[in-house]
Fold this sequence. Notes:
The complex is a heterodimer. Chain A is mainly beta. Helix content of chain A is 0%, strand content 57%.
Amino acid sequence: DADVTQTPRNRITKTGKRIMLECSQTKGHDRMYWYRQDPGLGLRLIYYSFDVKDINKGEISDGYSVSRQAQAKFSLSLESAIPNQTALYFCATSEGGSYEQYFGPGTRLTVT
Amino acid sequence: GENVEQHPSTLSVQEGDSAVIKCTYSDSASNYFPWYKQELGKGPQLIIDIRSNVGEKKDQRIAVTLNKTAKHFSLHITETQPEDSAVYFCAASISSGNTGKLIFGQGTTLQVKP
């Protein structure tokens, strides 16, 4: 089984809708991250969490919120989706004190 | 703020040739530089990394070199094979605080022609 899983893998939604992307991990890592990937822009950090009570904004957090429900679960929400949030979204994990990050398979989100 | 520039954005080589991807970074305190490979429909996967206390690291057909003075590092793939075709990302650690954060380059799409 995959160590980092993301659901859904693909999602099409309409402008203004609320949507949640979920991430689960079995690696036992403390740290979890949400990135978005756009062509030509690489991976940009949206939010990161060191543990259930420690959540921090990344470089592009506007329009997004997160919830760390447990050590193994980290969800990303778009409260009111807009077309320029169409992108690939990746969850990643790392051990505390390590820079090595392990990525999930991604969610392709399309906002029409 | 911190920045990582990656070149080229696309690279096409013949099978068996070498491929080189280059990155420059802005934060002189960065000390960890990983390379990720992303195959179609999958998440990025760590393939090699280097820390600031070494200048070169090799793992079979892939190698990474680091020039801290010039703040650039490169990925070298020798004897390329079609399965090397993918998007490659470089990254650099962000030094402020013990955050474990990385900043990524823009990505290079490598095509290896059989």
